[in-house]
Amino acid sequence: MTQNAAKRVDGKIAVITGGAQGMGAAHARLLAEHGAQVVIADLDDSAGEVLAKELGPDALFLHLDVTDPDQWKSVVRETQTHFGTINALINNAGILLPNDTLETDTLAQYRKVIDVNQVGIFLGMQAVVPGMKQTGGGSIVNISSTAGVVAFLDNFAYTAAKWAVRGMTKAAALELASHKIRVNAILPGEVNTPMIADLDLDVTATPLGRFGNPVEIAYLALYLVSDEASYTTGADHVIDGGYTLP
What we know:
CATH topology: Rossmann fold
Number of domains: 1
Distance between the termini: 40 Å
CATH architecture: 3-Layer(aba) Sandwich
Radius of gyration: 17 Å
Shape: globular
Largest sheet: 7 strands, parallel
Strand order of the largest sheet: 3-2-1-4-5-6-7
CATH superfamily: NAD(P)-binding Rossmann-like Domain
Number of helices: 6
C-alpha cells in the first residue's frame, strides 16, 4: 500500500487558519490528500474559495479573522454543521510587519502582530477544546518560527509572539493531556511563501543551502495531526534546514 493510499488522517476534521495560501494552503492540500475533511479559514475569501473548490466536497472555506472570538465560534459551529466536531486544528495564520523594532513600533503596531500571531492561537485553541474533550481527544498544531528560538533584527513583536506560542503550546499540552488532546509546535525556518517574498534574506545562512518548501512543513503537520504522533505532545519541532544549528 502506498503512503497516499494509507489515508494517514482519514476521519480527521481539520481547521487550518491562514489556509488560503502559502503554508496554510499546503497543509490543506496534504491533509485532504490523506483523507481529512478540511476547513480553510482565512480573511482572503477569493483565494480560500478557489482552494476549497479545487479540493472538492471534503473542503470548506470559512471567513475568519483569528483575533475575533465571535468569528471563531462561527467557524466551530459551521464546521460542526458541515462535517462534524473538529478534532484537528492547525493554527497557521500569521503576519510579519516591516521595520518591526523596539524603538519604532507604535503600540498599535505591536498589538497588531501580537493579536494575530499569539492571541489568535489562544482563541483558536480555546474555541476547539470543548468539542475535542467531548469526543475523546484531538490534535492541535501551533505554527511558531525559528524566531521563537533565536532573535531576528527588525522582528521585535514577531519574535515576542513566536516565543510566546512555544510557551502557550507547552502549557496547553500539560493542561489537556488528560483529555487526550495533544498540542505541539512547529518552528519553520525561511520557507518560500508570500510572507517572505519581499524580504532580503541570505539563503547561505541556512546550512542546507536553500529555503524550505511549504509542503515540507505540511508533511510535519500531517504527522502531528495523525495518530502516528499519538505519544507526542508539548514538543517544539524545528524544521529550518539547519539554520539554528550554529
